[in-house]
Amino acid sequence: MTELDGKVALVTGGAKGLGRAIATRFAAEGATVVVSDIDADGAQAAAAELPGGRGHAITCDVRDEDQVQGLVERTVADHGALHVAVPNAGVGSPCPLLAMDLAAWRSVLSVNLDGVFLTLRYAAPAIIAAGGGSIVTLASVTATTGSPLIGHYAAAKAAVVNLTKTAATELRPQNVRVNALLPGFVGTDLVTAARPGFEELLGLPAGGFDGLIEQKQGRYGTPEEVADAALFFASDRSGFCTGSGLVLDGGLDASLL
Ligand SMILES: NC(=O)c1ccc[n+]([C@@H]2O[C@H](COP(=O)([O-])OP(=O)(O)OC[C@H]3O[C@@H](n4cnc5c(N)ncnc54)[C@H](O)[C@@H]3O)[C@@H](O)[C@H]2O)c1
Fold first, then answer.
1. Mean of the pLDDT values across residues 76-81?
2. Shortest CA distance to 136 belongs to which of 205, 14, 231?
3. Banded pLDDT at 1 (limits 50, 70, 90)
4. What's the CA-to-centroid distance between 190 and ligand 1, angstroms?
5. C-alpha 18 – ligand 1 centre gap (Å)
6. What is the mean pLDDT of the chain?
7. How far is ligand 1, taken at its centre, from the CA of residue 98, in Å?
8. CA-based radius of gyration for the chain
9. CB atoms within 10 A of CB 254
10. 122 an active-site residue?
11. Which listed CATH number (3.20.20.70, 3.40.50.720, 3.30.450.40, 2.60.120.200) goes with 8-184+225-239?
12. 250 CB less than 6 Å from ligand 1?
């Protein structure tokens, strides 16, 4: 199937993890995909491996307004249009609220919220100019639950869900749909890097975090499962969805215990 044939898509934070899986899925469905990341070498490597030679790398720090504006302008200049944007770049590591200084708070909010706002702010006019399309934000199940030790991260993700809804209603007349993905824990470097910190702060033995995940959501999700959901929101199959959020968490959010 080629659900995104002829479309141009932009994925921030696309060098690895969920962004890379989403870029790969989109390219397999016929899209030309701009893989953008703060990691220039990583973006180049990921873009080079996309199916059909349809990947193109552009280095961009989503915290920097000029860089984000340049990213969208270059995408349109190089590929003629923009139809799909995935503000995916994100960071986060565990820290209790009372140990969190303002710099740590802002370091997460600047990527996970400012970066989403900036990407949406500059991508949406380009998508409107192309006649419409789709924006898929990467929130998290923590947007609905909150979570100990990642208060900055969860607050940013809750704001992303809210921003997604506002953007959906403001952009509906211009044929731009905006939807959010809310994954639980997925096996990427983001989670692997955070695992020892969670274990220490939660008093778990080494490896204990994996047991907690198994108890809460059965297993880790896979990047490919998130990419499938991103494809749904990016494609015409979700034509009546806007302002919505899809939780992919193995049931974590469904149960108190
Ligand atoms: N992995 C999970 O369990 C999970 C769950 C829910 C939501 N998410 C969200 O999905 C998104 C991707 O997460 P992931 O697990 O793939 O993370 P990851 O750490 O594997 O990859 C994140 C990518 O973002 C890039 N990045 C970081 N800061 C950037 C910046 N300022 N500008 C541009 N790029 C930047 C990194 O270089 C990296 O390539 C994030 O928004 C994350 O919060 C992840």
1. 98
2. 231
3. low
4. 7
5. 7
6. 98
7. 25
8. 17
9. 9
10. no
11. 3.40.50.720
12. no
